[in-house]
Amino acid sequence: MASANGALAFISIDGPPKPTFDKLVDELSSEAQARQVKVASRDDPGAYRVKGYLSMHVERGKASVAYAWDIYDPNKTRVARITGEESAGTVKGSTGWAACNDAVLAKIADRSMAELSEALGVGGNPAATAAPEPVVASAPAEVPAVPAQDAPAPAAAPEAPASPVAESGVPVAAVASVTPALAYAAN
User: Fold this and answer.
1) Rounded CA gap, 111 and 107, in Å?
2) b/e burial code for range 117-126 (CB count within 10 A of at least 16 → b)
3) Per residue in 125-146, pLDDT tens?
4) Proportion of the chain above pLDDT 70, given as a percent
5) d(CA 45, CA 129)
6) Is residue 98, in this structure, part of any structural domain at all?
7) Which residue has the higher pLDDT, 145 or 94?
């Protein structure tokens, strides 16, 4: 799904106050650089257009930031929407944006840029966020049986399900379920 030049152009980010907006832009720029995602000018005709929306929610003294990114191709067709929510901690009163500190903005930028680059097939993954190699457990050593005298035979244990095995003969870890934060938009 990558565009002709593989770049993202951020058109707008609505919702946060100016100081929060400025910090988020800095965090997004850092994440884009770390993931080797090209960020283009709004005037670049071949770039994906990204519009962002953030909103602060405070309920019972706990703040959270919901965010959404709408991505449009160069023909102005929405191709994807990425959404998420980050906890911003506890607050007093209704000044929730004060709880949206640098750590919260860094999480939003990291997850957003990871989803954007994956969904659009642009950039790469920074080494720091690369998935670790799966750990393969070896079978326990066989314990020799000791004959029991006048003991009843133990009930047979249920057979364990077989692990999937790749062509290389190495067991493959199974994923139970994944809930993607990416929802493709119907036009």
Assistant:
1) 6
2) bebbebbeee
3) 554 444 434 444 444 444 445 4
4) 61
5) 31
6) yes
7) 94
> Per the structure block, which two tokens stand in for 77?
């067709």
Structural domain includes residue 123 = yes
Residue range of the domain that includes 30: 7-128
Q: How many Cα atoms sit within 13 Å of 90 on the Cβ side?
A: 3
- Domain CATH for 67: 3.30.160.150
Question: Does the model's pTM come out above 0.70?
Answer: no
Tokens of 175: 């994923």
Render pLDDT for 47-70 as a digit per residue (tens, 0 to 9): 889 999 999 998 888 899 999 999
List alpha helices for the chain, DSSP H.
Answer: 18-34, 102-120
What tokens does 99 get? 């709880």
Helix, strand, coil percent values for the chain (each to nearest 5): 25, 25, 50
Specify the number of domains making up the chain.
Answer: 1
Query: Which one-letter DSSP state was computed for residue 92?
Result: S
